[in-house]
Write a structure and sequence with these properties.
Layout lengths: L2 H7 L6 H9 L3 E3 L15 E5 L10 E6 L9 H5 L2 E4 L3
Antiparallel strand pairs: 1-2, 2-3, 3-4
Helix pairs in contact: 1-2
Length: about 90
């Protein structure tokens, strides 16, 4: 599944275009590296969301492990079951 679509389906961004823009700005890392919105993401990958540039949390980061890819559109609660928060090192 495309990274931008995955972030939207997991309800981490309100729209796919917002997810794509964050990826292009380098605010989203896939397995610790910058990537393109079209990059394929798989179960087991780690997504790091950096809030740099966001008025809601300057510099805050969170890393999520993808447990399973969504098959259909999900509610926010159901989407949360597909990821696991990874504690910082």
């Amino acid at each position: 599944m495309r990274l931008d679509l995955l972030l939207f389906e997991l309800r981490l961004f309100k729209s796919r275009s917002q997810a794509s823009e964050a990826i292009q700005h380098g605010w989203v890392l896939l397995n610790g590296a910058r990537s393109k919105p079209s990059r394929e993401a798989h179960a087991g990958d780690r997504v790091t969301l950096a809030r740099t540039g966001s008025p809601r949390g300057e510099g805050a980061e969170r890393t999520l492990e993808i447990l399973e890819l969504p098959r259909t559109s999900l509610s926010k609660e159901a989407a949360r079951a597909l990821v696991r928060e990874v504690p910082p090192d």
